[in-house]
Specification:
Oligomer: single chain
Structural class: alpha/beta
Shape: globular
Largest sheet: 6 strands, parallel
Number of helices: 23
Number of strands: 18
Radius of gyration: 25 Å
Length: 581
């Protein structure tokens, strides 16, 4: 073959292929993984190895699940053929094949195609070089901020006085006081803790102390989704009553948006970066468990070097849908230690949530057989109820709650008067009364089937055809409408025309024509991922069996409930091992 024909048949550069593997995760993992397994050996001019190809496929599938690392031990992951396992080749055979492969960076010279695409991680797993390098860079930047003192430093006596005032004002425990002190002395603070451990109370006192120390401080509050940003703003307003009037007013007036809006998303990137940095002294990001690697890198790129960063989240919740769970990566013991005093974990429960909290804590710490015993021991008076039935059937009790919620929404929507602010607020408040959560979109217990069941044929048509009072999910960032992905509104008909009512904290409730909300979805049922950053009085959780039991799904779903939760599973629950042959 001539050089010209070889050049003509050469595959796309690996950067493009890796971009597909690491950026276009919406593509089916199998198709993408198989394409990479075939293309990479051609690109690097190496002999194909079935075991290495299986690893590439398994890594592509892991990336689609949001995982940047493929463990090379334990149970064979998705994508590793049953024949290989049956032949006893997993994991030793795959590890040996990988070590022999030029596709793995093992200290060899780079090929003409560039550096090897695969790398081993510190834990002995497998990762794509591009994302491993980006993760290392992000963690290095966070470590640098964590170990850098605030400049100019506050005098020790002034710092102690602010800390003691916050402690007294907020009735803070020792870890909460430590968090306040950290924000008064360093450029990075990571505040973690489960529901009811006082994260919002702590954040309010941290902000108040920072504003007292530096009255001209430029502060911005943000979250990965619109719903999470709204919840953060509401929570700070609710906790502001413990502050003096002037501080409460300043905290409540702080701007609060999605990160995409703050960074000025343009579709192909962000307008804010190191050349056009944010004009901020302190950035507070809530729901950091939802923050993926690419978005975290964009935040660090746009945040001035001397600015402070406060990250708040629950590491036990679900990782982000997009690859790169930054908060989980930070939770690694070695990385935690490298951040010094920047990490503060709250553990004392301040809000009693009964059986919901007890079971959620058990899921957080393991689950399994103990989880089933705890669920089986639940009493009718408990605020968590476990019901079992075979899909597609659903128990009548939680369905009755959902139908009552639908009817209440319909009644409020019928009584809606655009001139009455209280009527609009009552309708919007009812949206948080009840929701049905499931981990999947398709299948008999998926979001799509549930909406067909709850809305009938109208579920398949657009928002203009949905019944009065139907909750509406904005599924995109729509800056021109002042809406973000995750915002929820409701169908109303104040005249002859169907409109959508949304909350707007700056301008009050407002109405939109359905045509101005492309991609709108009904929101009586949500995926558990979509519910992150939200809270509801009552939650119905459907948990079908799947190939991989993920305790974070149940933990995240249960902790959306403030008052009552229903857990519905098949007779053989998803955490129980499959029966033997």
């Amino acid at each position: 073959m001539t050089e010209a024909s070889q050049e003509a048949q050469a595959p796309a550069p690996f950067g493009a292929l890796t971009a597909a593997a690491t950026g276009a995760v919406a593509a089916p993992g199998w198709t993408l993984g198989m394409a990479l397994a075939e293309a990479l050996p051609r690109l690097y001019g190496v002999k194909r190895d079935p075991l290495v190809e299986e690893l590439i496929l398994a890594l592509a599938l892991a990336v689609q699940r949001g995982e940047l690392e493929l463990p090379l031990a334990g149970t064979a992951p998705e994508g590793i053929g049953a024949e290989s396992v049956a032949a006893g080749l997993w994991p030793e055979g795959h590890r040996a094949a990988l070590e022999r492969s030029p596709l793995l960076d093992a200290g060899r010279e780079a090929s003409p195609a560039g550096p090897a695409p695969l790398v081993r991680t510190a834990a002995g797993g497998l990762a794509w070089r591009r994302w491993r390098d980006q993760l290392d860079d992000v963690l290095a930047q966070l470590r640098q901020r964590a170990l850098s003192p605030l400049e100019p430093a506050l005098p020790p006596e002034h710092r102690r006085r602010l800390r003691d005032t916050a402690c007294r004002r907020g009735a803070l425990d020792s870890q909460q006081v430590r968090a306040v002190d950290a924000l008064l002395s360093q450029r990075l603070v990571l505040l973690g803790g489960g529901p009811g451990t006082g994260k919002t109370t702590t954040v309010v006192q941290m902000l108040a102390a920072a504003l007292e120390a530096r009255p001209d401080l430029r502060v911005h509050l943000a979250a990965p989704t619109g719903k999470a940003a709204t919840r953060l703003r509401q929570a700070i307003r609710e906790r502001g009553d413990r502050l003096p009037d002037d501080l409460a007013e300043r905290c409540m007036a702080l701007p609060c948006t999605t990160l995409h809006r703050l960074l000025e998303s343009r579709g192909d990137g962000f307008a804010r970066d190191r050349r056009h940095p944010l004009a901020l002294d302190l950035l507070v990001i809530d729901e950091v468990s939802m923050l993926d690697l690419a978005l975290m890198a964009a935040v660090l790129d746009a945040l001035p070097q001397q600015a402070q960063l406060l990250l708040v989240g629950d590491p036990a919740q679900l990782p982000p849908v997009s690859p790169g769970a930054v908060l989980i990566a930070i939770e690694d013991d070695h990385r935690r230690a490298s951040l010094g005093e920047a990490m503060v974990q709250l553990a004392t429960p301040y809000r009693y949530e009964g059986a919901i909290a007890a079971v959620a804590a058990q899921v957080r710490n393991g689950g399994g057989a103990r989880l089933e015993r705890s669920l089986a021991a639940l009493q009718p008076r408990d605020n968590l109820h476990w019901l079992r039935c075979e899909p597609p059937r659903l128990p009548e009790a939680p369905l009755e709650r959902l139908r009552a919620h639908q009817e209440r929404l319909r009644e409020l929507a019928m009584a809606f008067d655009p001139s009455q602010l209280s009527a609009a607020q009552a309708l919007l408040n009812e949206l948080e009364a009840c929701v049905l959560l499931t981990p999947v979109r398709s299948g008999s217990w998926g979001v799509e089937a549930l909406h067909r069941r709850l809305l009938g044929e109208a579920a398949e048509r657009g928002a203009a055809a949905w019944p009065l009072g139907t909750p509406v999910l904005c599924s995109r960032n729509l800056a021109e409408q002042n809406l973000a992905n995750g915002d929820v509104g409701v169908v109303v008909r104040p005249g002859r025309e169907t409109l959508l009512l949304f909350s707007d904290d700056t301008a009050g409730p407002r109405l939109l024509h359905p045509a101005r909300l492309p991609g709108a979805e009904p929101a009586l049922a949500l995926t558990i991922h979509k519910s992150q950053g939200s809270q509801y009085q009552e939650v119905v959780v459907l948990l079908p069996r799947s190939e991989r039991w993920e305790g974070r799904l149940l933990y995240t779903a249960l902790t959306r409930a403030r008052r009552e939760a229903w857990l519905v599973t098949p007779p053989l629950p998803p955490w129980a091992p499959a029966p033997g042959p």
